[in-house]
């Protein structure tokens, strides 16, 4: 599963017939280490961003094989999406192996797009107020693909087949964070 928007983990968790204790949400940091989140933790993570290689709200995962009997959502972008394009997937630490997992990708398109990308400086209350008071038509479309193996290129292609543009390898979490900084103060900070 790929972290393509804010509500994906919450949507998938609430629509799953399994109990929430069987659901695990994993998000890599820029170094490729996986952090585990609860659905509420994912929501909170969505309203923060950091240039560091650690995650304060998630729990570092050392061994994914312990998660084999759970429903695992792996968000390979490591950040929120604008629901129009997809950032390069973060290369995972070599200690993680998904060879014994059933691999599927879930491509979800939300309309309107503002569901997908809360700017980190917007409060959760402001975000929910906008969601509740906007009376425009809302819809969710999704497609699921099954894979025989954990092949990043094939998984990524399933998103490209569904009108999510693949972004350059130069665009990553760090460049996205710089853009957000610029968005708020319109200055370019030099180190």
UniProtKB/TrEMBL annotation:
Domain of life: Eukaryota
The protein's name: Uncharacterized protein
Source organism (scientific name): Candida albicans
UniProt lineage: Eukaryota, Fungi, Dikarya, Ascomycota, Saccharomycotina
């Amino acid at each position: 599963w790929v972290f393509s928007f804010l509500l994906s983990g919450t949507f998938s968790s609430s629509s799953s017939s399994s109990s929430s204790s069987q659901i695990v949400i994993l998000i890599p940091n820029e170094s490729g280490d996986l952090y585990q989140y609860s659905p509420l933790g994912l929501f909170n993570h969505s309203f923060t961003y950091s240039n560091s290689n650690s995650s304060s709200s998630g729990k570092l995962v050392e061994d994914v094989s312990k998660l084999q009997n759970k429903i695992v959502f792996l968000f390979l972008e490591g950040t929120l999406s604008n629901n129009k394009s997809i950032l390069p997937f973060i290369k995972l630490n070599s200690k993680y192996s998904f060879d014994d997992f059933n691999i599927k990708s879930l491509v979800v398109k939300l309309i309107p797009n503002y569901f997908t990308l809360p700017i980190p400086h917007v409060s959760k209350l402001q975000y929910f107020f906008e969601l509740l008071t906007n009376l425009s038509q809302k819809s969710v479309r999704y497609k699921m693909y099954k894979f025989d193996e954990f092949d990043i290129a094939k998984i990524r292609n399933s998103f490209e087949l569904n009108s999510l543009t693949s972004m350059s390898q130069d665009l990553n979490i760090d460049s996205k964070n710089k853009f957000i900084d610029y968005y708020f103060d319109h200055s370019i900070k030099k180190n």
